[in-house]
Request: fold
Amino acid sequence: MSLFSPLTIREVQLRNRIAVSPMCQYSSEDGFATDWHLVNMGSRAVGGAGLVMLEASAVVPEGRISPQDLGIWKDEHIAELSRIARFIKENGASPAIQLGHAGRKASMRRPWEPSGAVPESEGGWSRVVAPSPIAFGPGYLVPEELSQAEIEGVIEAFAAAAKRSLDAGYEIIELHAAHGYLVHQFLSPISNHRTDEYGGSYENRTRLVHQVVARLREVWPDNLPLFVRLSCTDYVDGGWDLDQTVQLSKELHAAGVDVVDCSSGGNVSHAKYPIGPSYQVPFAEAVRQAGVPSVAVGLITEPQQANEIITSGKADLVMLARELLRDPYWPLHAAKVLGVDIEWPIQYARAKN
Ligand SMILES: Cc1cc2nc3c(=O)[nH]c(=O)nc-3n(C[C@H](O)[C@H](O)[C@H](O)COP(=O)(O)O)c2cc1C
Reply:
């Protein structure tokens, strides 16, 4: 098994083990995908990735991180999203989309703007929701606690978004349960102080993710893969940690999740991250050792590094984010470095050698 070995998950065959990690572009109006999204995702399919995943797409408008997030909360979004899926597919990659809800981290300014919450006068919204009324950190809104009826609504919004993803031609959906967004907020005792059946014990804190996954599996066809991205640790004592991640991954796998995408952090504003090359790979390795197919992500930039992660069995797939922004053709270049002969887009054939 190596970086350029194909991988079949359910009935989807990936041409290699390189995936484009979901990356918010903060370039939408009213949730609509644009030409930017088509070119951005399309060029990475042309560049040779096996899987191209669209950024966190909000399942409800109030679940956007910023007012400019991509959305999938209404049927009108499907047409533009389907154009992107079709192009990705035509160019040999599998089209995937991440479904998200920002919870208490919603209604914020884009990363390149001065930080802070966006006022209603500029398209923000003042009511953000979460398991408990605890702000993420300075500058963030204090969320309102979701009622049980509202939690039902969130679960249904994820299911409706999955149906739209299917209608738009996506082959893989990923539930965003990482980076301190809504589902992660329920998992972590740092952000979840509820006293009802959604808070307290491990079983209660994981109830929402199980309920969302169960509904997703009801509406998402049996022949198509479902991924879940987890933050494998909060990096603070008393927070979500790797032991809980491994336990949850096993439960989710038994419930029909095909792959756990192993990221970390994002739920504690003062947490310290041990950032360095491959720093999250041990999480993917631990999940895979527990019998659950996994994705490694985070500071994977070199062809040999990516290949070693696969050949040594630490993960089934690697996801690259920033390196694929620097070089959309990274997979084509990596094949050359590794001495693997892969097909280039026919239009580019004369540039191959
Ligand atoms: C511009 C940008 C936007 C991102 N948006 C998302 C997102 O929508 N969903 C997500 O799960 N992670 C998101 N991430 C995190 C990446 O998917 C990835 O996990 C992280 O950047 C580490 O990988 P890297 O070192 O290869 O960049 C984003 C990262 C960047 C740089």
